[in-house]
Amino acid sequence: MKIEELKKELKKYLKNERYEHSICVMEMSGKLAEKYNVDKTKVMKAALMHDMAKETSFDELKKYIKDKNIYVSKMEMLLGVTLHGKVAADICMKKYNFDEEMCSAISNHTTGKPNMTMFEKIVFIADKIDETRKYNGVQELRELAFKDIDLAIVKNIDYTTENNLKKRRPILEQSIKTRNYILINNKN
Ligand SMILES: [Fe+2]
Ligand SMILES: [Fe+2]
Q: Which of 47, 72, 164, 165 can bridge 169 by disulfide, Cβ–Cβ 3.0-4.6 Å?
C-alpha cells in the first residue's frame, strides 16, 4: 500500500492531533533515513503507522493481545503503555502486509530494545523528536539524532527516566535494557 493510502487508513483510527504527530514522525524518519542510508519509503510507512492503536482503549488492547496470542510480559500488561505498539504491529502485518523489520520497529517504538537495527532506531527516535514535540532540550536532541543517533537515544531515555523518577512513576524495564545495551556496546 502506498503512503497516501496508508494516511487515509490512519485517519480512521486517530484524531487530528495524533494524526499530525504521526505525519511529523514520518517526515522526521524520512530525513533520518536519508542521513543513515535506510530504505526511506519503508521507514516512513512504519513511522506513519506507529501510533495507529494509541487511541484504542486499554480494555480493547488487552482483549486484542489475548485473542491474537501476542507475547507481552506480565509487567507490560499491567503498565499498559507499550501495548498500542504491539497491537499496531500486528494490525500492520495482517492488514497492510508490513514486513518483520517494519513490525518490529512499530512494536518496540515506545521503549526501544537491545540491539536495534538502524531502521528501528530511526522510528524510535523520530517519535521522540518530531516537530510536534515541545519539551526542554528537544531541539538539541533533534540535532544530535543526525550526528550520533545512539547517544540521542540514550539521552532521550535519560530524560524520560528522570521524569518518571521525579514523579515516582514505574520505570519500563525494556527502556533500561535498551539504554544499557547501547552504553555497554558503544564503549570506545
Ligand atoms: Fe506510541
Ligand atoms: Fe508516537
A: 164
